[in-house]
Amino acid sequence: MAHDYDHIPRRLGNYWLETRLGSGYSGSIFRAYNVYTGEFVALKVQDVNHECPTNRYEEHIYPLLQGGEGMPKLFASGVQGKWHYLVISLLGSSLDNIYRNNGKKPLDLRSVCSIAIQVISRLQTMHNHEVLHRDIQLGNCAIGLSPNETMIYMIDFGFSKQYIDQRTRRHIPDSKQKRDFLGNYWFTSVGVHCKGKVPSRRDDLEAAALMFIHLLTPGGLSWTRNGVPKTDEQHRRLKRAKETARPEDLCRGMPSEFEEFLRYCRRLKFAEQPDYEHWMNEFRELAHENGFTEIDKFIWPPPPQQAKPARSQPAPQRPAVTTSEMENVLQDLAKLQLNNRPILADQTNVPAAQATKPEGKKDGDVIDLSSDSSVGNPSQEPPRNLPPRTPVRIKKASRLEQLRIAISDATDNAGLATVVAEFTTFLKETGSSKTLTKEGFAFMDALYKQLADPSVFVQPLRTSRTRSTTTEKPAGPQPAYVKLDLVARLRREVVRAQDNRALAKMVADFGAVTNRSSGRTITKDGFAFLEGLSSRLKALN
Ligand SMILES: Nc1ncnc2c1ncn2[C@@H]1O[C@H](COP(=O)(O)OP(=O)(O)OP(=O)(O)O)[C@@H](O)[C@H]1O
């Protein structure tokens, strides 16, 4: 049915329509103002006879979301003549506009981390209000107008639905029956789009994951490159491409968080509550490790010193498998009861198991997954037709955790000195990021404990109640010079420290001042302090 949007009256209710901001399948949206207060708003107008009355659905959803961060306000709604209208907060550009105006080039890592944090948070808000969005896409995320231009808002609730049955208070049921696809071609999850599953919270998150990956991919996700499908055959091809794309291929060259997030979304059960906080923290930490500050704000265009192209930076190697997947594999392996059954159906071409067992290995020995399978038998050629093995990337967090354990296990100053030196070198070599992450602080806590008194319980350095000499100063970020002065002094004094207690106090001061500095980065003086600390520990052994 054609709808004559050119004949919408200039005034609807108390609002005067100014300019058209956009039009979609279901209606038009205008910038308008309240004729009494002069306040600018956005007005969504739809023909009351529209075959898909999305304005009516939105009118029902908006009140459920009022007051939530990043949710537009609904000021009024009504019908005038043949027009149904919704009056909502006027916002700025959508992420789709931003992406297009940027020439559809991949966005920088800072921007994508910040989008990820905010979009996940918006979904958390919506889901906490028992609402699924069901149409996550770039065009449905818009930034605010000044002074809210760093906030991403969620818009277009025309496909939204409550996932808690209001009568029974239970989660809506899953179904084996294939449903017609509802959502958008680019980002709707594989389950909903390609397999006809019932959408739930996990699918909102998966769509978000695909959106983040799209923003980091030159040319965008492969199935978006031929435009909107016009025939059933084109749509079938698009679905096949989407369904068969492996996360590791989609995310090649990106920081591993994106692949891990996509895999996580796809592993979620139908009614499972996603761990939003965990993933917001993962993206915050990734940003932190790359030296990006104020990451909870979406700043467009990105601050020049932080606008590193996402692909050209030394992204950590993506793991062949994630830690949790590896855990699952190991658990499944442990559960296998092979007894005397053949490992392969046809063993005629497989050397006897005993013959390939490395010297000295007994049944029940732990399999060393990090070593190459040919190590036990140097003459053995690696098997053909197997993909090359990618080393599992030890994430910064895991390495720091190893070092924390090592520092807690050290029994004398020489041992402490060695681990401090390793910690310093590791941080120096972690790409451009010299940020002290929460694992870094945990290391400093363990070091402090060892130096002060290995038998006492220690308040973590990242709480506001530190033992440092700077505790009298108010908590919160400090001007850079305070940090620079103190760290430079620590660097000078560490070489003269008389005992471990003096060193402990310095470590506490260093931790406290780094925690309160913006970015929590370790400066040149900071590294010199850590190196001096290692040398002094050796001298005091
Ligand atoms: N509150 C708003 N303030 C400013 N611009 C907006 C607002 N809401 C929507 N827009 C603009 O109008 C476009 C269409 O809005 P929306 O998605 O809500 O309408 P729709 O008719 O449901 O569109 P579609 O059919 O494309 O889903 C958005 O992409 C955005 O650019």
Automatic annotation (TrEMBL):
Gene3D superfamilies, A to Z: Transferase(Phosphotransferase) domain 1 (1.10.510.10)
Keyword ATP-binding listed: yes
Positions with biased composition (Polar residues): 370-379
Extent of Pro residues compositional bias: 380-390
Designated name of the protein: Protein kinase domain-containing protein
UniProt-annotated binding residues for ATP: 44
Residue ranges of domain Protein kinase in the record: 15-299
Keywords: ATP-binding, Nucleotide-binding
PANTHER family in UniProt: CASEIN KINASE-RELATED
